[in-house]
Amino acid sequence: MTSVFERSPTIRFLERIGRGVARGLEEIGMSAGFLVESLYWLLFGHGQRQPVRPASIFQQMMDVGIRAVPIIGVLAATIGVMLAIQGIYTLRTFGAESRVTIGIALSMTREFAPLITGILVAGRSGSALAARLGTMKINQEIDALRVMGINPVRFLIAPALLGCVVMVPTLTFFSDVVGLWAAGVFVGMDLGMSMVSYAEELGRILTPDDVIHGLGKSAIFGMLIALIGVVNGTLVTGGAEGVGRCTTRAVVQSIAAIVVTDMVFVFVTTR
Amino acid sequence: MTSAASNSNQANIIEIRDLVAHYGSRQVLNSVNLDVREGEIMVIMGGSGSGKSTLLRHVLALEHMTSGTVRVLGVDLGTATTAHLADLRKKIGVAFQGGALFSSINVERNVMLPLYELTDLDPMQMRIMARMKLQVVGLAGFEQLMPSELSGGMIKRAAFARAIAMDPRILFCDEPSAGLDPAVASAIDDLILGLRDAMNMTIVVVTHELDSAFKIADRITVLDQGDVLFSGTPEQLRNHTDERIQNLLNRRPQDDTIDPDDYLRRLTGTGDNPSMVL
Fold this sequence. Notes:
Chain A is mostly helical. Chain A contains nine helices and no strands.
């Protein structure tokens, strides 16, 4: 009879894959559960006399959105200038550098602004959410909420979810504006195009669909960041070390989810 | 301390019947039976790993039981709806071992939290009630401090204030004097006795502190490796002849003789033939 110590490397490898898949499915199920329950409390909490407090939502919006404005502004401006530099350099090969605006406008609004905003919020707020919930779990604060009769999903998760879903697109729009402005400044300096001409060209090139495309996927990114942060926070075990692990895991998973979702979104909506 | 005899005719406010609980494949509680009477202080004692904290978590409906029945204030926790549980939880208070205060809000807001979330009182009434509870536990004047600015004893007191914010019928205390110096631990014991007398609460205390247990208990239940070893008055406990209870009372370690075969069996999770793994 084969003992537990004599499994072949292949079997052990398959076991690891199986455990990983099972855990992944469990986490997806938890995310779906948290999403549905959060929506329930957001929509029907008032009727149950347990509303999701506006003050909690605004607090989350402050943390996720307003406090991220400076760093988002710096990154968006940098990306805008980089797009302008690369665009002019590439199009100069064909003597078409005056057409650089179209590349900047579409790339920024449809791709770079949502992506960079999502990644930054994942690193900044998704990790903070996972760490906060993980610490609360270890300190029995979540148990305390439950025994007080305060639903932790309503109290902690629903405000964070709504905060992310509202503020990531808002930050993306801010990123669009700053990135396009910074690119315009560089284009003006390099090609001698006035800001008025640049703005008029942007107006001709960009349609509402381009902006909505970016904002739409930003809302999905926001939802993913919140849910991944929440799931990792609630699964914390093992004290401070466990909190550190869950924080790292939340950031890595959020960024991977954002990039993959972005690709799927573009594939479905752009082809 | 109220004598147990005077409480013996009181109705059972908590009834536990044949409670079995597992963590994974490990059985932590083995068919536990326990009654808590209205108005008494019941102390649940036992060494580390005896199952006392697990028992508390099941009575608080924080864990799913494997089998058995737990009734708290007449509500069967195994079959209760979410609404019934929510209603029940307004009638109980819990002071956790580490306090479980919310670190981002001050002491007063911690105590106000259940009032803010579960009642329609106006903010001034909530503030007055919170300050009254803080006065009861001896924390008047410390309302604006953050949890990180409190000492260990003050954290326990603040946790008590939050636990009694809704004037519960049952107060649960998990290791209330753990990690405190003797003077502060004694003060916490006095606080528990004072709360019972002033607010006529039923109090369930989980602890491994013998001095504290004998000081506050009307009745004591001793758990050992998931079994109820004893349930009765402190006097009955002192006079009990069971070796394991005497070991506990005299702070002697249990007999740790290990059967090598049994150890190997548990280590490998195999059946009757441990040698098969070698």
